[in-house]
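Quick note —
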Amino acid sequence: MKYGFYTPNFGYCGEPKNLLDLAIECEAAGWDGFFVWDHLQFPNMEPAADPWVALSAIASHTSTISLGPMITPLPRREIVKLAREALTLDHLSDGRLILGIGLGYQSLPEWSGFGHEQDAKIRGGMADEGLQVLSALWSGNAVDHKGTYYTAVCEAWAKPKKSPSIPVWIAGQWPGKKPFKRAARWNGVIPMARDQMEGGKITPSDLSELLALIDSENKRSPDFDTVMIGIKPTEAELEAYSNEGVTWWLEASGPWSISFDEMKEQVRRGPPPN
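Predicted structure written out below.
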């Protein structure tokens, strides 16, 4: 199992230099990845750093850790801009980018507050079509796409450093089914409980069921990633998740519970179960 550090982009973590410091400490302490939220706002927390700008600095000051936004709500992003930003970060990091994609949390409220699409069904359609456009733009071929939500007509772009393409992990709330059927077509899945923000967890039995659903849509390849997000797991919990096929554990931490110095110390102790 690989281990990543999973941090918000607000509070003291909304200061880009703090994110850079944390990422450098992560690499030194033996973590496999460093992943940043992509929220526009969060209650009583400021500022909200742009993860793409911060990750560009991180890519320039690290050499081994995987990195990426976790999770970018694709329907509120301009698709060509997202494709170019991801391709640029992939090249800048020599192929270390992993792109987390989801529909976002309306409860924050990030959609109504900025005039973005609020209908979940439409956002789902935008995500599915948008993912197809991303794949086409990263293919190294000319693109001629005129769809329901997006248009992309251009000559071939450079291909990603990562072969065959930039890995895409799809996030979704269990026991919903649609996100996991979507994940079956991509490179990994990030399952979350509906009440995750209130401390809910995905159990090993949940994992078994949702991975069976993914396999019923499209049999997972050997390099398909199953990603768990949580806080301070025990060795027994990690073993149980590993037995169900979990390939990454993302350790969540944030300014709502600890100081920046305490977070740096947490990073320096290394991956769980430390």
